[in-house]
Amino acid sequence: MSADALPALDQAEGAPHPRETERLFGQDRVIAQFLEAYNADRLHHGWLVTGPRGVGKATLAWAIARFLLATPPAGDAGLFGAPPPLASLRVDPDHPVARRILAGADPGLFALRRGHDDKTGRPKSMITVDETRKLAGFFNLSAADGGRRVVIVDSADDLNVNAANALLKMLEEPPARATLLLISHQPARLLPTIRSRCRELRLDRLAPADMALALDQASIAVEPAQAAALTELSSGSVGDAIRLINLNGLQLYADLIDMLGTLPNLDRQRVLRLAETLAQRGKETRLDLFLTLLDIAMARLARTGVMGQPPHVQAAPHESTVLARLAASPQDGRRWAELSSSMGDRLRHGRAVNLETTALLTDAFLKLETA
Questions:
Q1: In a domain, 9, yes or no
Q2: Per residue in 86-96, pLDDT tens?
Q3: CA atoms within 13 A of residue 141's CA, in its CB half-sphere
Q4: How far apart are CA 98 and CA 69, in angstroms?
C-alpha cells in the first residue's frame, strides 16, 4: 500500500503522521517497560497501548513496529554471542525498514484501521469484520520469510462486535513471531477477554517541557509560557495542543477569561459580537473548541473556590486574578460547579438539536452574569 493510499484517519490535522515521527517525548517509563520485556526475551504477542488522546500512543506503536522489524530478536545469538541489552527504540531513518515503513510498503507490517465506504468515499464509523479478516491473508503471505510480523490496530475502540471477536481469535491463537499493538483511548470499553490477552502500556500526559519538544518536532515553535498554557488547556495532549494552535485557541481562551473578568457587569455587545462570529457557517470546529474552553474555564473556576487558590499555571493573562475574585470560597466553587453542569447540558443539547448559536451563547453568558 503506498503512502498516498493510506487514509489520514489516524493523523492529527497539522501534525506529521505517527509513522513519520522520529522521537516520542515524555514516555520514557513505558518505553523502558517494553524494552525490559524485549531484552529479557519475554516479548508478549499482544500489547494494549492506552492513555488519553493525543499523548503519543500511535507514535509509540509505530516506533515499536519499526524497532521490531529492524532489530534481530534478543534471543538470537550471532557469531559473537547475544547482543547487549537495548536501551532505545530508535532506528536509523536510513535503515531499509524505516524507509519502507515511511513509504507504507513494509511487508511485515499491517495497519488495521477504519476503511472507506466504496459508495460515498467517506470513512466508515467502525472497523468491520471484513477489514479484520484481511489479517489472515497478511499472516499467510508474510509467513514465508520467517521474519517478524507486526499489526497496529488504530484504534481498537473502533472495532465493531464481529471485528472484535475476529481479532480475539488471533490473540488467543497468535501466529508465530507476530506482535499485535492495539491502541485504545478507552480500554474499559473493550472486550474483557481482549484486555486479558494483552499486556498494557499506559502513556502519561505530557509536562510543559515535553510538550514544547513534541511541538518543535512537529515544526511548531512555542514560547515556554505558551507551552505551559497549551499543556493546561490540552491536559497534556499534543494532539489537542495542535488543535488549539490551528484554531487560535489560546487567544480564544484569553478572550473568554477577559469577558469573565467583567462579571457581574457583562459587556453584552462584546458577547454578541463573539457569538455572531462563532455562529458563522464554516466555523463549527471553532465553536466546538469554544464550548470545550468554556467547560475548562468553569472547571478551573470551581476548583479555585474548592481548593482555596487558582491553578498554579495560568492559561491566560490575569486568569488567576479573575478566578480568585469570582470563586472566593468553597461555597462559590460548588455553585460554579453546579452551574457548569446545568449550563453544559443545555449547550450540548442546543448543539445537538441545532438551536440558533447566537441565542444559545448569549443565554449562557447571561446565566453567568446572573450567577
A1: yes
A2: 889 999 999 99
A3: 10
A4: 9
Residue 56 maps to which CATH number? 3.40.50.300
Cell numbers standing for residue 362: 448569549
| Tens of pLDDT, residues 17-72 | 899 998 999 999 999 999 999 999 899 999 999 999 989 999 999 999 999 999 87
Q: How far apart are CA 111 and CA 150, in angstroms?
A: 9
Beta bridge partners of 109: 150
196/131 Cα distance (integer angstroms): 23
Sheet hosting strand 149-154, strand order edge to edge: 109-112, 149-154, 178-184, 46-50, 199-202
Query: Cβ-count burial of 260 within 10 angstroms (0-12 exposed, 13-18 middle, 19+ buried)?
Result: buried
Decide if 163 contacts 126 (C-beta within 8 A).
yes
Same domain, 51 and 169: yes
| CA 145-148-150 angle, 5° bins | 125
Alpha helix stretches (DSSP H) within the chain: 28-39, 57-70, 96-102, 129-142, 161-172, 192-196, 208-217, 224-234, 238-246, 249-260, 268-278, 284-307, 319-326, 330-352, 357-370
Q: Return the amino acid letter for 46.
A: G
